[in-house]
C-alpha cells in the first residue's frame, strides 16, 4: 500500500465502509505530557517523542502505539529547555563542547533513541556553537532534529547538516535562498496549530508554503503535550497544512512518512465514511485498527489521485 493512497475497506466488526491507510504518525510529541492511552482512538498508530527524561524508554514500552524517541534534549550548558517548568530536570543533557558530542549522542542511542534532538533557542539562553553542533551531527548515525527559535537559528542548523526541524520556523520570515537550500536537504515537522491566535502562525504558514513549493518534505507533527491539543489527528493542523499549499496526497504523505523508521504493518489507520470536501474534518474521525479487522473493497480509496 503506497503511503499516499488509501484503500477502500469495510470494517468486519461494525460493517462501516471507509478508507484504510498505513498508520498515521505524529512526528512531534512529548509523551510524558500526553494521555497516550487515547492515541489509537484518535487515529495515531505512531508518535515520535522529541525530548524527555531517560524514563521515556519505559513510557514508550507501555504505550499502545509505536513510539520512536530522541531521549534527552542536547543543548548548550544553561540552554533551553533547562529553565522550563514543564521539563523534568534530567531531560536536558548539556553538551560542553565538540569532544563531548559523541558521548552525548551515544548515551541517547544506547537508551534506544532513533533520533537525536538538539535545541537552538537563542532567545532563551546559550545555544550550541557551530563546531559542537557539527560534531553532534557527525557523531549521529540517526536523524538529528533541531528546535530552532530566534534570528539565524535555521541557518545555523542547516549549515551544520541538521536534517530535520522540529517546528516550521515561526520567529522570522526566511529568505527564499535559505528556503531553497533547506528544501534540498531538510524535512520540516509542521506544528502550525500551536500558534493559533498569534501573528507567528502566518509567518510559519508562509515559510512552510514556500518550503513545500520548493520541494521540501513536510511531516505532520503537533508538539502534542504543549497546551490543549487533541490527542489524535488534529483537525486544525491539517487545515493549516492545506493553507500552506499541501494537497490531499501531500497531507497523507505527511501523516504516513516513514520517519524516523517505518512503523511496520501491524496497525492501520481507518477513516470511516466517504469524505466530502472537508478533508481535515474527515481525517479527524480516524481510529487505529488491526489489519485483520478490515476487508478490502474494490477500487482505490477516496483520497487517491487528489
Spatial order of the strands forming the largest sheet = 7-6-8-9-10-11-12
Which regions contain 5 or more consecutive residues with pLDDT less than 50?
A: 301-306
> Strand percentage, roughly?
15-25%
Q: Which oligomeric form is depicted?
A: single chain
Shape: globular
For the record, the count of structural domains works out to 1
Taking the sheet with the most strands, its summary is: 7 strands, parallel
| CATH class assignment | Alpha Beta
Q: Any idea what the CATH architecture is? A: Alpha-Beta Barrel
- Tally of individual helices: 9
Structural class, from helix and strand content? alpha/beta
What is the CATH superfamily classification?
Answer: Metal-dependent hydrolases
Rg to the nearest angstrom? Answer: 19 Å
Distance between the termini: 16 Å
Number of DSSP strands? Answer: 15
Percent range of helical residues = 25-40%
CATH fold assignment: TIM Barrel
Helices and strands, with pairings:
Layout: E1 7-11, E2 17-22, E3 24-29, E4 44-49, H1 56-62, E5 66-69, E6 73-75, E7 92-94, H2 98-110, E8 116-121, H3 130-139, E9 144-149, H4 153-160, E10 164-165, H5 176-185, E11 187-189, H6 199-213, E12 217-219, H7 235-243, H8 248-256, E13 268-272, H9 279-283, E14 287-289, E15 294-300
Parallel strand pairs: 3-4, 4-5, 6-7, 6-8, 8-9, 9-10, 10-11, 11-12
Antiparallel strand pairs: 1-2, 1-15, 2-13, 13-14
